[in-house]
Backbone:
């Protein structure tokens, strides 16, 4: 029980329980699919084929078995490592509930766009693995940290601005290799993620009421005005305290003066 309690404490302390849950669930699902020799994957992966379950629009990220070869395992490990890095950062900023909504919203939107576009264009589409929603989380992080420099793969320096563009290019290459239309469709949810993270969707603010105090994004002028108002209030308070102390001292002086005269 001590180990479990320590793990629960760590999850609570890091402030990103949903990200931890996502990574753990992806590892577990991949092990289950590997042990069952991919049996049941048709119930979680998404395809524009007859009889595809409706819930697969949000379950396809879990339809991935990376244990088949070393390259797939390396790709999966990178996805999980990167999800921990950007997912925790975004979740701490947004809050767990809103981050969970962002994840499933991005998953659903990407699935609907890809399947809808493929169906209209008579292009067979099959979606599996968490890359599509994770790419949206990456774009959100890049918008919020456009000038932050990181070392990609441990040795490639890149800022959030360029990493966002690189994510879009990778999407086009991955999903547009067989058909360029799918590559373009795979970036639609990234564009929505950009506008969302940049607070350019009027009816859908990035955080609870805007940014970073209790999930609310305070605009610079609003924050400055609040700070100045607080300074004025504090100065008034101290002036009043000083005035009362002066009055009290004067009263004590007068009492002593008249007392001495008596």
Residues:
């Amino acid at each position: 029980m001590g180990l479990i309690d320590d793990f629960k404490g760590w999850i609570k302390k890091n402030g990103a329980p949903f990200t931890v849950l996502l990574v753990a669930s992806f590892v577990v699902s991949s092990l289950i699919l590997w042990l069952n020799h991919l049996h049941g994957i048709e119930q979680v992966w998404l395809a524009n084929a007859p009889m595809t379950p409706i819930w697969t629009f949000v379950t396809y990220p879990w339809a991935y078995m990376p244990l088949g070869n070393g390259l797939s395992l390396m790709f999966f490990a990178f996805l999980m490592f990167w999800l921990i890095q950007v997912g925790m950062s975004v979740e701490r900023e947004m809050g767990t509930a809103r981050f969970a909504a962002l994840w499933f919203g991005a998953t659903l939107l990407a699935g609907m766009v890809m399947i809808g576009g493929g169906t209209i264009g008579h292009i067979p589409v099959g979606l599996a693995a968490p890359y599509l929603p994770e790419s949206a989380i990456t774009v959100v992080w890049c918008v919020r940290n456009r000038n932050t420099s990181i070392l990609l793969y441990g040795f490639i320096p890149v800022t959030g601005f360029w990493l966002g563009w690189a994510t879009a290019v990778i999407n086009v290459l991955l999903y547009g290799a067989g058909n360029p239309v799918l590559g373009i469709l795979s970036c639609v949810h990234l564009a929505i993620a950009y506008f969302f993270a940049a607070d350019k969707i009027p009816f859908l603010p990035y955080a609870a009421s805007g940014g970073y105090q209790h999930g609310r994004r305070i605009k610079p002028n609003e924050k400055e005005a609040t700070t100045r108002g607080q300074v004025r209030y504090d100065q008034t308070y101290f002036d009043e305290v000083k005035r009362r102390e002066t009055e009290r001292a004067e009263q004590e002086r007068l009492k002593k003066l008249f007392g001495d005269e008596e």
Remarks:
- The chain has two domains: 2-197, 219-262.
- The chain has ten helices and four strands.
